[in-house]
Design brief:
The structure holds two protein chains of two kinds.
Chain A lengths: L12 H16 L2 H28 L1 H5 L3 H28 L3 H5 L5 H31 L8 H28 L4 H6 L4 H4 L11 H7 L3 H15 L4 H32 L8
Helix pairs in contact in A: 1-6, 2-4, 2-6, 4-6, 4-7, 4-11, 7-11, 7-12, 11-12
Chain B lengths: L6 E10 L2 E11 L4 E5 L6 H8 L7 E6 L2 E3 L10 E4 L11 H11 L5 H11 L15 H12 L6 E5 L7 H18 L2 E5 L3 H7 L2 E6 L2 E6 L1 H7 L5 H9 L2 H8 L1
Parallel strand pairs in B: 3-8, 3-9, 6-7, 7-8
Antiparallel strand pairs in B: 1-2, 1-4, 4-5, 9-10
Classes of the chains: A mainly alpha, B alpha/beta.
Chain lengths: ~270, ~250
């Protein structure tokens, strides 16, 4: 029998790896889960892709702006699933009544958040990479051809998705599974306001003010400029990054406050409603 | 020179809105001791254990474990503690081996595979290692939960009903194993159980809780003698039903 206590480490990549491994085991043990990761992004991309083909046949503008709908739907999925991938991994712990084990283990909140971010990237990669390949095959649209711009778009979208997911995780810790629906539906608020499928100029003036407060708006606007005018607007991405920094910092504070509140109100061990 | 207590609870109070779950309890556990925390439902056992684990912010009072104040400095000592509780489950889709690997990594165990194998042999889990945890019987799950709670060879072990769902033979075997573990590791054990024979066998001290207060604190033998009973279960019933208070009032 070992009589050595493990050493204390302030930030442990191994603990991050433990959480990632725990969720990886779940994903790889279930083909329906893998299928589910790909199913909806694929359906959406096909629907918008065929709609774009149809519209392009009747409009010179859309014929020239080929790929904007497909790009929009894929980038929207990155935003949506960046949040959802984080939140689903978090919900798994509540569903399996494992949160108490984690909260009473040496795992630190920062390590847990990094692990959930990693899981959202893994989930998104499983779901989205096949979709991008099908987009090439069906519509001749190669998302990867955006190159460095794509990396900047994706990074910004992930930051927003993770920020929202952090607040949702805090609410789930504080309020239990009663707050579950937020995890599934909160991102849809961004769908009309961040102008995924149309330019910001379409919105009424007063609503444009709110739209420009949201980092993804700059990404979707930048994507359209890139595909239609063939120009990469670095200024838009810098503004998105600055806004994301503020949003992410605010979300981190909200998460820590909600975690502390959960510790005060005794909801960490409950997990239910 | 006095050693630092493994667990020190000082005037702990926990109030949820208008309900006082813990009402100013104090106790201290010496390293290597085994203590039972007894009380009826709602007596405050789980709140006390959750406070010791750092899951709860006390309303007032202090809790320290291995010299670290909880929950503020919990991360200094959580890797030296562990627990088993019916209020949490181990992920059911993962195999026993996968679960022990994940928890071994979380607790910073150096050679997780060797530790898993050793625990599997000691807790008779070798044949179950590659089965999904959710497919096991409740008794087997309890043994897996016990293995998880011992993955880091904890110096402080908190056990909530550790032998629930086990058949008498396996329960007896687990108790023997816990006795050996405690002796070998000099581990401090705090046990919440409704099995009084288990408490009599494993613990040299019993803390009785009722409505968030400590109503008695002594060795099992002294309690049995003082209450004029033949076993701890009768003492428990006396306290839970307030018969000691009625008797004192009559005298």
């Amino acid at each position: 029998m070992s009589v050595q206590s493990p050493e204390y480490i302030a930030f442990s990549p191994r603990r991050v790896g433990a959480i990632v491994l725990r969720h990886w085991y779940v994903i790889k043990s279930s083909w329906p889960r893998i299928f589910d990761l790909m199913y909806w992004p694929m359906v959406q991309m096909l629907m918008w892709g065929f709609l774009q083909l149809y519209v392009a046949q009747h409009s010179n503008f859309f014929a020239q702006a080929a790929g904007t709908f497909v790009a929009a739907v894929i980038l929207w999925d990155i935003l949506f699933r960046g949040q959802l991938g984080f939140s689903i991994s978090f919900l798994e712990e509540l569903y399996s009544r494992n949160m108490g084990n984690l909260m009473m283990s040496p795992l630190r909140p920062g390590e847990y958040v990094v692990a959930l971010m990693t899981m959202s990237i893994i989930r998104l990669a499983i779901g989205t990479i096949p979709v991008t390949l099908v987009a090439i095959a069906f519509f001749g649209f190669n998302l990867w051809a955006m190159g460095l711009a794509l990396a900047v778009f994706v990074f910004n979208l992930f930051l927003t998705g993770w920020s929202v997911a952090l607040v949702v995780a805090g609410l789930l810790l504080r309020n239990g599974l009663g707050a579950e629906n937020l995890a599934w539906g909160i991102m849809f608020l961004f769908l009309p306001l961040t102008c995924v499928y149309y330019p910001v100029s379409v919105l009424p003036d007063w609503l444009q003010i709110f739209a420009w407060m949201m980092p993804p708006t700059y990404v979707f606007e930048g994507m359209r400029v890139l595909l239609i005018d063939k120009v990469f607007r670095a200024d838009l991405m810098i503004q998105a990054l600055a806004l994301n920094a503020v949003v992410f910092a605010g979300s981190t504070i909200a998460f820590l406050v909600l975690l502390k509140s959960a510790r005060t109100h005794g909801t960490l061990l409950q997990g239910g409603d | 020179m006095t050693s630092i207590p493994a667990i020190a609870v000082d005037r702990l109070v926990k109030v949820y809105k208008t309900v006082t779950a813990i009402d100013g309890i104090s106790f201290s556990l010496e390293p290597g001791s085994c203590t039972a925390l007894l009380g009826g439902n709602g007596a405050g056992k789980t709140t006390t254990i959750a406070s010791i684990m750092g899951l709860l912010q006390p309303t007032s009072g202090r809790v320290s474990v291995l010299g670290a104040e909880m929950p503020r400095h919990r991360h200094r000592v959580l890797h030296r503690m562990n627990f088993e509780s019916p209020y949490v489950d181990i992920p059911m889709r993962l195999t026993v081996r996968q679960n022990l690997k994940v928890f071994g990594m979380l607790y910073g165990v150096a050679d997780v595979n060797a530790r898993t194998q050793a625990l599997a042999e000691e807790l008779d889990l070798v044949d179950l290692l590659d089965r999904p945890t959710g497919k096991l019987s409740s008794g087997q799950k309890t043994r897996v939960a016990l293995a998880k709670s011992l993955i880091n060879s904890p110096e402080v072990l908190l056990l909530d009903e550790p032998t629930a769902s086990l058949d008498p033979d396996t329960a007896d075997w687990v108790r023997s194993w816990l006795e050996r573990y405690r002796a070998t590791r000099n581990a401090t054990v705090l046990l919440a159980s409704h099995n009084m024979s288990e408490v009599e066998r494993l613990c040299e001290r019993v803390i009785m809780l009722k409505q968030g207060k400590i109503v008695d604190d002594d060795t099992p033998a002294n309690l049995i003698s003082r209450y004029g009973r033949t076993n701890l279960e009768e003492v428990f019933l006396d306290i839970a039903r307030g018969r000691n208070e009625a008797s004192e009032a009559a005298q």
